[in-house]
Amino acid sequence: MQFDDNMPIYLQIADRICENILSGKWGPDCRIPSVREMGAEYQVNPNTMMRSYDYLQQKNIIYNKRGIGYFVSSGSISLILENQKKKLIDNDLPQLIKKMFLLGFTRENAIEAVEKGFDEVQEEELVKSN
Amino acid sequence: MQFDDNMPIYLQIADRICENILSGKWGPDCRIPSVREMGAEYQVNPNTMMRSYDYLQQKNIIYNKRGIGYFVSSGSISLILENQKKKLIDNDLPQLIKKMFLLGFTRENAIEAVEKGFDEVQEEELVKSN
Amino acid sequence: MQFDDNMPIYLQIADRICENILSGKWGPDCRIPSVREMGAEYQVNPNTMMRSYDYLQQKNIIYNKRGIGYFVSSGSISLILENQKKKLIDNDLPQLIKKMFLLGFTRENAIEAVEKGFDEVQEEELVKSN
Amino acid sequence: MQFDDNMPIYLQIADRICENILSGKWGPDCRIPSVREMGAEYQVNPNTMMRSYDYLQQKNIIYNKRGIGYFVSSGSISLILENQKKKLIDNDLPQLIKKMFLLGFTRENAIEAVEKGFDEVQEEELVKSN
DNA sequence: GTGGTCTAGACCACG
DNA sequence: GTGGTCTAGACCACC
């Protein structure tokens, strides 16, 4: 796997794990691979892997059974979505809007652009689902 | 000034300087404050300030006259802005909107969030200009 | 059974066994269930169960007849309990009370907390014995 | 410094730092020694030291200024006391009470013992303050 | 100079 | 076998 140099590897891996949970690869209370297995898969030191697990456990997305391994929490999916939503609203969106503002977009321009963008995405998804 | 912990301070300051240029505070070939003055204003280490100027100079947004100071470049700016605008509309915005869509935002939710965000930015900028 | 994450499981089980001995469920020289039976009851790995027995045997609380099973020691227990009681009154309790005092508990707070705690334990044990 | 083998070193060091804050050695917004300095003092690897700081930052007891160091949070003292109180009520006290129960203390015995212990501590502290 | 991340390898308690 | 802790040493971004 390729890693983006602008973000810690352990966070990128945590994101990947979240994706796997969201995609249904690992359901609730499913055991995820051990630190060492996962470390081998991502070609990463077990310590680094451990950090990803630590991080996810701290966020209540996975939990630990001692001597056995890590497991997906039952509420994990909603927690992940909540986290992502929070990040989007608190960081991504304001950042983009500020950029638009500085580039001379008026309030109306901005809204219009979003409406247009949304319609396109909606249509795209509609097509995909057929 | 408050800094976002997720981005280098020198880049955040560079952004602020760009804003000031865009807002017309500093016109073409206008001398901008010295590293020390600016450093004092933003309560930041002069080294950090210097990095911001370095970065902007590298981007041809400001230029340097030795022994005198830094000045706003004339032509390059609008070109850079055009590029940014294009990139924003073609990449950043659709990407974000898609993300919102996948996270369950409805068209109305999305527009509402953008309106709210825009108003906040607008107000923020108003405050800053006083 | 629920386990406390801050203590080894085998020690927690050992405690439970001690409780059962104290409560009279298993009298002196009474044979206690096999490692497998007990492991099944507590839903625990037989290895872990074995560790509990090892630990208790080492403390002379139970003894082993090869090929037959584990048995409750006769004389040693009451002596051990006496020791524990002494240690509790002389060390553990004063230490905890001092801590409470330093953390701002009043005499009334402290007594109230103990009463509440005692009632909870009592109820818990009542439930368990059913 | 001597470390207790039953607890991770990084947590023991975190406790020591808390004590130093409580004792007033490091007031609010005071910079605490760097990871490397502290690591040298406690004869511990900087990574381990970092873990202590991580832990305390996560608990909002210290905060970080990038490139400068770690600083004591303003609300640190009440946070520390709160944590300790919580730990006492949730773990230490119930554990002790259970022990007392199993050792044959009645509710009245227990309360009496606590009253006696509290009075002794109170008197002790009175003497010390003169 | 500061913290932050990563690796490599070791040891341990626990199941 | 599992995770958890610790060390040693390296490299990096940032101030």
Automatic annotation (TrEMBL), chains A, B, C, D:
Q: Which InterPro entries match?
A: Tscrpt_reg_HTH_GntR (IPR000524), WH-like_DNA-bd_sf (IPR036388), WH_DNA-bd_sf (IPR036390)
Q: What is this protein called?
A: GntR family transcriptional regulator
Describe the location of the HTH gntR-type domain by residue ranges.
Answer: 7-75
A Pfam family of the record is GntR
Q: Which PROSITE patterns match?
A: HTH_GNTR
Q: Which UniProt keywords apply?
A: DNA-binding, Transcription, Transcription regulation
| Gene3D superfamilies tied to this protein | Winged helix-like DNA-binding domain superfamily/Winged helix DNA-binding domain (1.10.10.10)
* Molecular function as annotated in GO: DNA binding; DNA-binding transcription factor activity
